[in-house]
């Protein structure tokens, strides 16, 4: 089954998913091996690979390592049009719908599209929404866009709905990598009630309590990067939350 079909199937069946974000720049080689072992041994669904700005040219090396060491899908989460790789299984083709910068709404996509066509990877149209956190995020700075206000869930809901009407297959609510705290409950709930397509939430998730709350408020998929990068072994606890939530659901 392809990547998006699986996500859709999970959503229909009420099954929650978990992804680990691998930023090729942010991860030490030994830690990457450890994280992959943990992902292989626990209930993690797929890898996201990418970053707002990759300085070390380690995308190829990272993807090769993941493909060699793990059966879990490797999905590109590109910060720009050069973060493409033909060995990935899929790409989140991100349109930054919270922003008003045409470069990140369509222009980089025009440059990437012909190259993507030559690669045998699944393209998943994704509405990407930055939500204001306490500090400015790299994604907001690099994209030159203003994130959505944290206390205006109705704007987040309208943006997600517009994304859905424009044909996006996923909506990604992003608090920013390393955010002080995750996207607010109000924004998650408002977006959940506005759209029926799968919703990803990421940015600043550090505790199992936060994970519980984010799933319960309607996220289908959570993405954790920094917390796992800093302490890989926390992945065990995060994966356990997802397993428990799915078990509770299957018993209802
Ligand atoms: C960033 O949503 C991801 O794009 C993950 O964020 O690094 O804060 O977990 P963290």
Q: Report the major sheet.
A: 8 strands, parallel, barrel
Shape: globular
Chain-averaged pLDDT = 96
Distance between the termini: 27 Å
CATH C-level = Alpha Beta
Number of separate helices: 10
- Class from helix and strand fractions: alpha/beta
Task: Estimate percent helicity.
Answer: 40-55%
| Fourth-level CATH superfamily | FMN-linked oxidoreductases
Query: Would you count the extended β strands for me?
Result: 8
Strand order of the largest sheet: 1-2-3-4-5-6-7-8
The CATH topology: TIM Barrel
pLDDT < 50 stretches: none
Question: What is the total domain count?
Answer: 1
Structure description:
The chain is of the alpha/beta class and 252 residues long. It has one domain (16-250): TIM Barrel, CATH 3.20.20.390. The chain contains ten helices and eight strands. Strands 1-2-3-4-5-6-7-8 form an eight-stranded parallel barrel, surrounded by seven helices. The radius of gyration is 17 Å and the shape is globular. It starts with a helix and ends with a helix. The model has no long low-confidence stretch (mean pLDDT 96). The site of SN-glycerol-1-phosphate has 14 residues, from β8 and α9.
Helices and strands in order:
Elements: H1 3-12, E1 17-22, H2 29-41, E2 46-49, H3 59-69, E3 74-76, E4 90-96, H4 102-118, E5 122-130, H5 138-143, H6 153-165, E6 170-174, H7 185-194, E7 199-202, H8 208-216, E8 221-224, H9 226-230, H10 235-251
Parallel strand pairs: 1-2, 1-8, 2-3, 3-4, 4-5, 5-6, 6-7, 7-8
Helix pairs in contact: 6-7, 8-10
The structure holds SN-glycerol-1-phosphate.
SN-glycerol-1-phosphate is lined by residues 21, 174, 177-179, 202-205, 223-227.
């Amino acid at each position: 089954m392809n990547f998006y079909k699986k996500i859709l199937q999970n959503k229909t069946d009420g099954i929650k998913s978990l992804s680990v974000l691998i930023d090729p720049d942010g991860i030490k080689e030994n830690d990457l091996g450890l994280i992959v072992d943990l992902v292989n041994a626990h209930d993690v669904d797929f890898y996201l690979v990418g970053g707002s700005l990759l300085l070390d040219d380690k995308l190829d090396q990272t993807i090769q390592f993941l493909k060699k060491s793990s059966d879990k899908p490797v999905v590109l989460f590109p910060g720009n049009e050069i973060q493409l790789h033909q060995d990935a299984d899929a790409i989140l083709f991100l349109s930054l719908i919270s922003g008003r910068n045409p470069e990140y709404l369509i222009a980089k996509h025009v440059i990437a599209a012909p190259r993507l066509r030559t690669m045998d990877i699944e393209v998943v149209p994704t509405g990407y929404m930055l939500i204001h956190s306490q500090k400015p995020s790299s994604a907001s700075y690099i994209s030159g866009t203003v994130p959505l206000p944290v206390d205006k869930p109705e704007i987040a809901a309208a943006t997600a709905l517009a994304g859905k009407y424009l044909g996006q297959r996923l909506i990604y609510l992003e608090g920013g990598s390393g955010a002080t705290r995750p996207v607010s409950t109000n924004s998650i709930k408002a977006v959940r009630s506005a759209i029926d397509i799968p919703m990803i939430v990421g940015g600043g998730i550090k505790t199992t309590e936060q994970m519980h709350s984010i799933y319960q408020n309607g996220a289908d998929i959570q993405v954790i990067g920094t917390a796992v990068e800093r302490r890989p072994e926390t992945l065990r606890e995060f994966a356990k939350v997802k397993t428990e939530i799915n078990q509770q659901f299957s018993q209802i």
